[in-house]
Every structure is written in structure tokens, then in C-alpha cells.
Design goal:
Blueprint: E1 26-40, E2 55-68, E3 71-84, E4 87-103, H1 107-136, H2 149-165
Antiparallel strand pairs: 1-4, 2-3, 3-4
Helix pairs in contact: 1-2
């Protein structure tokens, strides 16, 4: 005596099976990979003896290219330079990429996913690669601070809107 509508007993196996087509909006990471990695240790072995605290310079950029209709390559470029009074101890340059699939999203949502959410997903992996590369170069590992990519994206959008709405300074 099964209850009508009970999930366990009413499997509804006689109903037509959907064709499996997924037409809803979707976005996600298909693959991620190191596109380019460079580690320079220009002043070794002298740099291992330097006692002053290094000044770390971190440069980061996010780029994106459309690979196919629904697939984009998001590139997270990071350059880390360790500077001392005596010179540069090391330079690590990484281009870490992700293939991002997006379909059925409005243009502004695709832009936001490409430049805010995808870098947020990729960053922890790039951070580990940078840390391992510095350690493998013979220095204490460097753990980059977490980055609020969504906050940076919102700031850049606001700055772009302010620039677009500003009146021209003069006639050309």
C-alpha cells in the first residue's frame, strides 16, 4: 500500500524521458592550466646571504580572449619581484589560464563572470604555483594575500561610468 506521490514508490517511469537538452543559463570552468611560468634567480648564490628584508613588488592583470562561441580563455598574469638593497633576489612571472564556458547569460553577466568570478576561482591555484616556484628557487615561500576580484571589478565599473559621464574638458 504505497501512498500516492511518494518519492520512493512513485518513480513515474512511464512518463516521457526528456531529451537531455540543457538550455538554461550556465557558466563554469572547463579547464585550468599554466600557460607560461618563468623563475629568475639572477644574483644567486650571493642573494641567499642578503640579510635585509626584501621589498616585494606584485603586479597582476586579468585578460580574456574568446576561443569559441561559448568558450573564453581567462588569463591571470602575476609578476612577483623581490628587491633588496644589493639587487633583485628573484622574479617570478606566471600566466595562469582557465577555459571558461558560458551560455545563455546576458552580456553584462558574462563580462562580470569573465573579469570577476573566473579570476576569483583561478587565483588560489596561481597563488600556490607562485609559492612553490619561490620555494623551489631557494627562498622562503611567498603567500600572496587573497584578492577581492568582485570588489575590484565593481570599483573599475564605477570608475568607467564616472569617466563616461564626465563632461569634456575643452574643445578639440
Amino acid at each position: 500500500m504505497a501512498d500516492e506521490g511518494n518519492v520512493i514508490t512513485d518513480l513515474d517511469l512511464d512518463s516521457p524521458v526528456p531529451n537531455g537538452e540543457d538550455t538554461g543559463p550556465a557558466a563554469g570552468v572547463i579547464s585550468q592550466y599554466v600557460k607560461d611560468l618563468s623563475v629568475e634567480n639572477p644574483n644567486s648564490p650571493m642573494s641567499f646571504q642578503w640579510q635585509d628584508a626584501p621589498q616585494l613588488d606584485v603586479q597582476m592583470n586579468v585578460e580574456a580572449d574568446q576561443v569559441d562561441g561559448e568558450i573564453h580563455e581567462v588569463k591571470l598574469r602575476i609578476q612577483l619581484t623581490s628587491k633588496h638593497e644589493a639587487g633583485i633576489a628573484f622574479i617570478v612571472e606566471l600566466t595562469y589560464c582557465g577555459l571558461i564556458g558560458m551560455r545563455g547569460l546576458p552580456a553584462e553577466a558574462m563580462h562580470a563572470f569573465t573579469y570577476a568570478e573566473a579570476p576569483r576561482i583561478l587565483f588560489p591555484f596561481a597563488r600556490r604555483i607562485i609559492s612553490d616556484a619561490v620555494r623551489d628557487a631557494g627562498f622562503p615561500p611567498v603567500m600572496l594575500d587573497p584578492i577581492d576580484f568582485n570588489g575590484l571589478y565593481a570599483q573599475q565599473l564605477a570608475a568607467a561610468q564616472e569617466t563616461a559621464s564626465a563632461e569634456p574638458a575643452g574643445n578639440a
